[in-house]
Write a structure and sequence with these properties.
Order of helices and strands: EEHHHHHHHHH
Largest sheet: 2 strands, antiparallel
CATH topology: Tetracycline Repressor, domain 2
Radius of gyration: 19 Å
Strand order of the largest sheet: 1-2
CATH superfamily: Tetracycline Repressor, domain 2
CATH architecture: Orthogonal Bundle
Helix content: 55-70%
Length: 208
């Protein structure tokens, strides 16, 4: 996980880094499931068997913890997405990417949507806590898709007149909107339809 790994400008020990990462991982799970405002530092401390003094040793405030949670969620998503997108060798290959996202949602007890989108709904209106990290996370995800499409363009699988950045934005927006509707309706159809439409559009720029 990336992010600040120091306390009061002192580098953390290996044990300290492990403890901090364990706290952030637990807080991420809780905040994605129940919402940022519903989870307190005290609760995270109880769940991780961390004393209040230890919690404040690693995080000066809840805002500090929330910022670390956003980065943790971003890194989880990027790791999953990188593993999928590195294997894409054609525009049609993105169908496997889409299928894997739908399959991941099916594994959960209920349709949970996008963890980053869930955090965004609470934090994006804020002027401070987490907002820059939310924005950076979406930019990073869009850039990953853009680079994948640019790679396909360089290899001749995507037409030269295609705009990888624009197509990546459209695809990611379709994904996020589909995830939100599927979460609200507890039905995979909106996500499947949104991704299918986005990839049909991408397919018009494919070299076969």
């Amino acid at each position: 996980m990336s992010g600040t790994q120091t306390v009061n400008e002192r580098p953390l020990t290996a044990k300290g880094r492990d403890t901090r990462q364990r706290i952030v991982a637990t807080a991420s799970d809780l905040m994605v499931e129940r919402g940022v405002s519903a989870v307190s530092l005290d609760e995270v401390g109880r769940e991780t068997s961390t004393s209040k003094s230890q919690m404040y040793h690693y995080f000066a405030s809840k805002d500090d913890l929330v910022a670390a949670v956003v980065i943790c969620v971003r890194d989880r998503i990027m790791s999953f997405q990188c593993d999928l997108l590195v294997a894409v060798e054609s525009v049609d290959g993105l169908r496997s990417w889409a299928d894997s996202i739908i399959a991941l949602q099916r594994q959960a007890p209920q349709w949970s949507g996008c963890p980053l989108g869930t955090l965004s709904s609470e934090l994006i209106g804020e002027t401070g806590t987490g907002r820059p990290d939310i924005q950076d996370a979406f930019v990073s995800w869009q850039l990953l898709l853009t680079r994948t499409l640019a790679r396909l363009q360089d290899s001749g699988k995507l037409q030269a007149d295609a705009d990888p950045e624009r197509l990546a934005t459209a695809t990611l927006a379709s994904l996020e909107g589909g995830l939100l509707m599927s979460e609200a309706l507890q039905d995979e159809s909106p996500l499947a339809i949104a991704l299918d439409a986005a990839l049909d559009h991408l397919g018009t720029f494919a070299h076969h």
